[in-house]
Amino acid sequence: YSGLYVGGLCLLGKAISTFRNVNDPEIKVDLLLPPKSLYFFSHRIRYEFTHEITSLPEQRVWDEKQIPKQRRISIMFRDVYEK
């Protein structure tokens, strides 16, 4: 299993990543991932939230603008779990 930190590198197309609370799915945070963006998360957001990239057009809206579905490459990074 991985450790405390998770990172992602978003290449090519834009995407919106949704972080959703596992105990209350109504609690969510959206993050716009432009091409060439690098992001990391840890602690509460790592263990108490899921993360997803939606394919639903109605959920791909940022600043009242539709984000078209585009080809993208995502590279994920995880640190090593140490006992």
What labels describe this entry?
mainly beta, 83 residues, 3-stranded antiparallel beta sheet, 1 helix
Task: Give the SSE map.
Elements: E1 2-12, E2 15-21, E3 28-33, E4 37-41, H1 43-47, E5 49-53, E6 61-62, E7 65-66, E8 72-80
Antiparallel strand pairs: 1-4, 1-8, 2-3, 2-5, 6-7
The gist of it:
The chain is mostly beta strands. It is built from 1 helix and 8 strands.
Description of the structure:
The protein contains one helix and eight strands. It is mainly beta and 83 residues long. The chain has a domain of 56 residues. Strands 4-1-8 form a three-stranded antiparallel beta sheet. It has a three-stranded antiparallel beta sheet with strand order 3-2-5. It has a two-stranded antiparallel sheet with strand order 6-7. This is Alpha-ketoglutarate-dependent dioxygenase AlkB-like domain-containing protein.
Oligomeric status of the shown chains?
single chain
Q: Which structural class matches the secondary elements?
A: mainly beta
| Order of strands across the main sheet | 4-1-8
Q: What percent of the residues sit in helical stretches (DSSP H or I)? A: under 10%
Ranges where pLDDT stays below 50 over 5 or more residues in a row are none
Cα radius of gyration in angstroms: 14 Å
Share of β-strand residues: over 45%
Order of helices and strands: EEEEHEEEE
The shape, in one word, is flat
Q: Could you report the average pLDDT, rounded to the nearest whole number? A: 91
Distance between the termini: 11 Å
Give a short account of the largest sheet: 3 strands, antiparallel
Count of alpha and pi helical runs: 1
Tell me the number of strands. 8
Organism: Smittium angustum
Protein name: Alpha-ketoglutarate-dependent dioxygenase AlkB-like domain-containing protein
InterPro entries: AlkB-like_sf, ALKBH7-like
